[in-house]
């Protein structure tokens, strides 16, 4: 069965950095498009960044230039490097793995940006 386990969340001051990781199991990781989504209280879940099996990336406008998504197919892991964090980045961050036939989610990791 598919399992996505996120880690790396926490409390950080504005302007700080965090690196999220998502370890996948139960899938042929290299063929999946991997993404990071977030959901803040009272808001809809939104795409933050995604990376295809071929390495193409896309980002939400709000994080362009600050966040970087990457993947290590040898480790079945996708990362989200978050720099210059802002209070509005505070949310529960979810890892997503998808193909045309499957769509799987992790349990989420909390990111809180506050002084």
Please count the helical segments: 0
Low-confidence stretches: none
Largest sheet: 7 strands, mixed
Question: What portion of residues belong to β-strands?
Answer: over 45%
Characterize the overall form. Answer: globular
Order of helices and strands: EEEEEEEEEEE
Could you tell me the radius of gyration in angstroms? 13 Å
Oligomeric status:
single chain
Report the end-to-end length measured between terminal Cα atoms: 40 Å
What structural class do the secondary elements suggest?
A: mainly beta
Mean pLDDT: 97
Q: Helicity level, as a percent range?
A: under 10%
The beta-strand count equals 11
Account of the 3D structure:
With 115 residues, the protein is an all-beta fold. Helices cover 0% and strands 52% of the residues. It contains no helices and 11 strands. The protein has strands at residues 3-7, 10-12, 18-25, 33-39, 46-51, 57-59, 67-72, 77-82, 91-98, 103-105, 109-113. The strands form 2 sheets. Strands 2, 4, 5, 6, 9, 10 and 11 form a 7-stranded mixed sheet that branches. Strands 1-3-8-7 form a 4-stranded antiparallel sheet, with no helix packed on it. Strand 9 (91-98) and strand 10 form a beta hairpin. The radius of gyration is 13 Å and the shape is globular. The protein starts with a strand and ends with a strand. The mean pLDDT is 97.
């Amino acid at each position: 069965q598919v399992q996505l386990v996120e880690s790396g969340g926490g409390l950080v001051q504005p302007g700080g950095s965090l690196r999220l990781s998502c370890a996948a199991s139960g899938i042929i990781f290299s063929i999946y498009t991997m993404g990071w989504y977030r959901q803040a209280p009272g808001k809809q879940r939104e795409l933050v960044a995604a990376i295809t099996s071929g390495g193409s990336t896309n980002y939400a406008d709000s994080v362009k230039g600050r966040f970087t998504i990457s993947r290590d197919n040898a480790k079945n892991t996708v990362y989200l490097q978050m720099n210059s964090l802002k209070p509005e980045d505070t949310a529960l961050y979810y890892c997503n793995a998808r193909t045309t036939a499957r769509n799987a989610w992790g349990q989420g990791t909390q990111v809180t940006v506050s002084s």
